[in-house]
Amino acid sequence: MNNSVGNTARLIGAGLRALLVLTVICGVLYPLAVTGIAQAALSDKANGSEIKDRSGQVVGSSLIGQTYNLPKTDPDDPEEAAKPDLKWFQPRPSNGLGSNTVNQQYALILSGATNKSGDNQDLVHLVKDAKQAVITDNSTASYKVQPEDVPADAVTSSGSGLDPHISPAYAELQVHRVAERNELDVKQVEKLVADHTEGRTLGFMGEPRVNVLELNTALKALSKN
After folding, report:
1. Which residues, in sequence order, are bridge partners of residue 109?
2. Are residues 80 and 64 in the same domain?
3. Are 27 and 191 in contact (CB under 8 A)?
4. Is residue 192 within 8 Å of 219, Cβ to Cβ?
5. Residues 88 and 147 in one domain
6. What angle do CA 222, 223, 225 make, to 5 degrees?
7. Which residue from 14, 108, 155, 180 has the least number of CB within 10 angstroms?
8. Same domain for 37 and 57?
């Protein structure tokens, strides 16, 4: 009986010591080491790829798309459709997606696709309406958008709905409207787009792209709005 109690006590003691050692190693030392390496080698990515404006305030993450809409006329009306603020470059559409009600600093697009097939009539109507809106919104007195100039990413959402990028073609299509709304020269805005156009990853993966948040942050600094 005494041997059994002694053996049990030794097993419990060994288990507690193992728990303590593993807790210190896996729960304290390892996280601290990984965090330290991440902060030293990849601090920007480790902190969420934050983008800051000229005042140093964090305005978002380069990895997550944002909407640029006008304030609602009735904030309490959930049925009121959001209208784009046309002084900013607009991201890809996010039809069928809701907004985050937790973070009120800006509307985060909830992750998810429309889950509609290519021949779904609701999706067809959404794309046609989006295309007409792109043509109307981006045509100015001196620049008319042609239907064939509207790229696919201007009228379709990404699979996640969180895509922070648009194609250079869609960014360039918006240049005249953005220049007019911000009282800037078209050449200035064209240069802004060119400066923020990223090439293919490692020269061969993916497509050229423009990060909308980074572009709009630079636009704000340029226009001093």
Report:
1. 99
2. yes
3. no
4. yes
5. yes
6. 125
7. 14
8. no
- What beta strand segments (E) does the chain contain? 50-52, 58-61, 165-166, 197-198, 209-211
Could you tell me where the DSSP H helices lie in 76-174? 121-138, 168-173
Q: How many domains are there within the chain? A: 2
Whether residue 158 sits in one domain with residue 110: yes
Query: What string of pLDDT tens digits covers the 225 residues of the chain?
Result: 567 877 888 899 999 999 999 999 999 999 999 999 999 998 888 888 888 888 888 888 888 888 888 887 877 776 677 788 999 999 998 754 445 444 444 455 567 777 788 888 988 998 999 999 999 999 999 999 999 999 999 999 887 778 899 999 999 999 999 999 999 999 999 999 999 999 998 888 989 999 999 999 999 988 865
Phi first, then psi, for residue 39 (nearest 5°) are -70, -35
Residues 37, 56 within the same domain: no
Q: Could you give the CA distance from residue 216 to residue 90 in angstroms, rounded to a whole number? A: 9
Rounded to two decimals, the pTM is 0.78
Residue 98 and residue 82 share a domain? yes
CA atoms in the 13 A half-sphere facing the CB of 113: 9
C-alpha span between 179 and 190 (Å, rounded): 9
Boundaries of domain holding 108: 50-223
Instruction: Specify whether 196 is located in the same domain as 112.
Output: yes
β partners of residue 60: 51
Kind of pairing between the strands at 197-198 and 209-211 = antiparallel
Mark whether 66 and 108 lie in a shared domain: yes
Q: Report the alpha-carbon distance of residue 73 to residue 163 in Å, rounded.
A: 27
In whole angstroms, give the CA distance from residue 186 to residue 8: 81
